[in-house]
Amino acid sequence: MRLELKGLTKKFGSFTADDDIDLVVEPGQIHAVLGENGAGKSTLMNMLYGILTPTSGEILIDGEPVSFSGPGDAIAAGIGMVHQHFKLVGPFSVADNVQLGREHTQRLGVLSAKAARKAVLDVSEEYGLKLDPDAICEDLPVGVQQRVEIVKALSGPKTELLILDEPTAVLTPAEITELLQIMRNLADAGTSILFISHKLKEVQAVADTVTVIRRGKVVAELEPTASEAEMASAMVGRAVTLQVDKTPAEPGEARLEVTGLTVVSDAGVKVLNGLDLTVHSGEIVGLAGVEGNGQTELARSILGLVKPDSGRIAIDGEDVHGASPAARIAAGLGYIPEDRGRDGVVAEFSVAENIVLNQYRDAPFAKRGAVNAGAVRKRAADSIAEFDIRTQSPEEPVSALSGGNAQKVIIAREFSRPRRFLVAAQPTRGVDVGASQFIHSRLVAERDTGTAVLLISSELDEIYALADRIAVIYNGQIVGEVAPDTPREVIGRLMVGGGIHDGAAAASPEEPGAPEPPAAEEAPEPPAADETSNDEDANGGDR
């Protein structure tokens, strides 16, 4: 399939999300689209998939103009899409989600569960995406939910053009390497791919050509051989430093002490199994591990959203057992959740309301029992400017923002109040390179003021860049603590249950595009998470 966009424009009232976009994707080509949060990438993809109607411009397939009144038309034309924000029905099984809109039926229109299961197994086997068709989607770790989305996009009629909107945002390094190989295999077989990503290494590893969009306009066409610095500068319109500048840590007293922490899921699985961890003031401890090994439950236990079955959590030497999340926040705990849609924002509330969400009872935002609207507006205006939140006004609902800008709202809220200890879970997930640089510098600044920082990230590059000490979690336990100059292969072995001095039989998280390490398929599956862990909120796109 040859796709051509001519002058494609989308306006929301007076706001122009995409402005006169021209773009061509050749058959069998992987065409990467780069841009900041709010640059218009997801809006562009949603027009191509029939979710949004263009204000003006044309979409041509194999030289013929087409018009889609909905995703069904796009699917019928051979276009599949993996959305940045998951479109799964949580209580449904994997097979049920995959067949939604393309149901397998028997006589008299009765649904065929057997055919639906077979479709999942066939596609999973063909593309190497291991899935249990009977698993309930809301019980799956977020990385596995991403696999469901990919299988869903590939399981309909012959997909000739596949749109991948930030598909690796929730995958581990090994899973990313696997996905990039799948993309290359699809392209070699003739499938055209539109690949939206903030991760420059991935683009360099797999793309055939790169289009850069900034504030709704195409600003550059680059070869994948372009340097990361060139790509980043084109995205944000200025020079970007990709290294994190920080001095050696000067740790002080123990600020967080977790001892023997155990959490048992409703299914009777120990998702945390006697975990021990200490974080001192003035240091960043990076928690590395394959998602689904207890990171979510640890973060939510520290905040008080999950009640441990046994063990102790102490902040500044005081056991916080029984303390509410509000009490812990008031005591100086900051929390950047991995799932911003569930734990980070109230999508229907305005940007201003979300920025003071955990302070609206406190001065100056409350006055004689009522909200001080002037103080709330001022904080919002200051935060929007400081954190470069792309919004039309402080009164705009967060549901209208891109995922990355919603993340900036959370970052602004947590960094605009006093903290003694900060849990930062996937703080830059879905955030562009310029914003990531800013968040990284703020995390280091927090450390340097004496705040204790627990960084939970599936991005090993982020762990290496920021951590003063790396703790590796596997199967609900800390299986090793290492220095930040420890080789990747060592951390990779720990992440899949091996020892520090074991041979390289276990999977190690390599850079995207690197050869798959030997016996990676032997890596044990992570335990099922008790909590739903869908990081990407269901609200808005990269408008």
Q: Which strand order does the major sheet show?
A: 6-7-8-3-9-10
Quantity of strands, as a count: 22
- Form type: globular
* Overall helicity: 25-40%
Residue runs with pLDDT of under 50 for 5 or more positions: 504-541
Number of helices: 17
CATH topology of the largest domain: Rossmann fold
Q: Characterize the largest beta sheet: strand count, sense, and whether it forms a barrel.
A: 6 strands, mixed
What's the CATH superfamily of the largest domain, by name? Answer: P-loop containing nucleotide triphosphate hydrolases
Query: Which structural class should the secondary elements be placed in?
Result: alpha/beta
- Fraction in beta strands: 15-25%
The CATH class of the largest domain turns out to be Alpha Beta
CATH architecture of the largest domain: 3-Layer(aba) Sandwich
Radius of gyration: 23 Å
The rounded distance between the terminal residues' Cα atoms is 26 Å
**Overall pLDDT confidence:** 85
Count the domains.
2
